[in-house]
Amino acid sequence: MADYLVIVESPAKAKTIERYLGKKYKVKASMGHVIDLPKSQMGVDVEKNYELKYITIRGKGPVLKELKTAAKKAKKIYLAADPDREGEAIAWHLAKSLGVDVDSDCRVVFNEITKDAIKESFKHPRKIDMDLVDAQQARRVLDRLVGYNISPLLWKKVKKGLSAGRVQSVAVRLIIDREKEIQNFEPEEYWSIEADFAKNKSTFQGSFYGVDGKKLPLASKTEVDAILNKLNDNDYKVDKVNKRERKRNPAPPFTTSSLQQEAARKLNFRARKTMMLAQQLYEGIDLGKKEGTVGLITYMRTDSTRISNTAQQEAMGYIEENYGKEFIGKYTKKNDGERAQDAHEAIRPTSAMRTPNSLKNILSRDQLRLYKLIWERFLASQMAPAILDTVTAHILNNGVEFRATGSQIKFKGFMKVYVEGQDDEKKEENKLLPPLEEGEKIKVTKMEPNQHFTQPPPRYTEARLVKTLEELGIGRPSTYAPTLDTIQRRGYVALDNRRFVPTELGEIVIEILLEYFPEIIDVEFTVKMENDLDSIEEGKREWIKIIDEFYNGFEKRLVKAEEEMEKIEIRDEPAGEDCENCGHEMVYKMGRYGKFLACSNFPECRNTKPILKDIGVKCPKCKEGNIVERKSKKRRVFYGCDRYPECDFLSWDKPIARPCPKCEGLLVEKKKKKGTQVECVSCDYKEEAQQ
Questions:
Q1: Of residues 299, 331, 480, 492, which has the active-site annotation?
Q2: Catalytic-residue membership of 299
């Protein structure tokens, strides 16, 4: 029997760590929590100083029994759950269950599952950090007091199956508030004037700036006409040319939230999928006989951008060897703010030398894509800034000023490897101006005024919502993915074109919370609670006092809500058609992925069907049906004939109603990075992209 017993959370880790530690160590997995609060009741006794009722999780009895048997035979027990609050709580529960002294050096933590990191961590065991445990207990108690008191109230007064949580309720409120902004938005008209200039055989573009050296916004066609009337025919002169060198610094390595945001932008991954794949990469992948199972990235729940000296040195060696010494940067950790848990590193590959290309035949497609993103972001963060040359030409005509801007990447630096994504993607490209001298005359070949209207703020994508929650200080890295999943499963929001839209149910629940429990969805209050939880972790405050401060006011609101809240009946909206199976009226229902049609005679009749959106185009194949918008199983929009399966016409691009002017074929809208381009499916006809 082994001398030492090590307990980790997952079986995948257990095998790898046991191989690294050698024969004297036996490594077993607890499969996450073995002890927790009961699901069937709150498990918090508010009358006895918020005493918690912990039980063995159903189904975990055999696991705990096996661990106890192994513990009796071991000389020493090490608890190696994940390096965060939740992991500390798991270690504490295991210690109590197995009779381990929490003040002994029984706790081992590591941020990466590599041989060196594991061996080093076992040289520095520590006692269980009760401040971390108390912070986790406080979070659980707080969430139980809110969820297990408000949720039954919502079931009774609104609809069964509803829930209310601190972070999820604020997230839904943000989505609803944004929708109200969009609905109340009044677009304002504005104009621009674009000009095509020519010098010798070179052409370039410029935009109207102002008059007599002052910037002048154009609000109407009348103002545009006044500017155009002021211009003298082709009397354009270069008044000034400004040249400057600009540095662009690389983005820092990933934190949990920035990884979720970037994976959404660049890979189209949902937050939940990103975290699932990151967990797999962290716990370890079998790389074959030579290396065995190895953790490919560091721990994926972190809000720090710190990088170890060893990792930096390795990255610098790789950069020098593959790109040259001039590409090595001077990385300094950005200020992550008071909330960052700096005990962790940023998310990075466990070895910069393990390139994505070397793992091509080992990782699944999605694992490889996420690993490549993490590897490239980390490597780029250790590289030199990019250097860009920018030129701005000021062009005058009778006091009217146009400006033309060009830029050129002089030194790619980190951009050789990776460029950070943006919510509104702007492509970094070389846009050169011809050599221009002050005082020289140039010609205009085209002058085009354009009408625009201001746009409302965009709906939240997953990436935008995660970024907003992080900026506001709501929730923690581990909470974002389950929060976004919960608000969709409860039917509070739906995704429309990958953007969150509130449902009627979501609006009703938030209205109730606003009236009876305003603090639950108040951003400032939620941020204060997060800071209070941090202060418990830092040992500055006692968790029971913080919970008591919250519950004293909350309890009074509960009593008031129970007495005053009226029952709300949510009626299904009639769809205006009958069920083809039983003849009852069809109604609109809200599901996880948005609205769908269902029979009102449920559960006797379970007929459901998707809502088909007619786009006003006749089917080009059968000439009888109409083209409707549909969604695939993966929620991707496509277009097909409403006579399916009789007609199997299908298109991923949106057909438009007019025929091709060149061949009378079908025109479709193709999405490009710069906008939407109209193309013919039968010939080479194309129209300019619409911004």
A1: 299
A2: yes
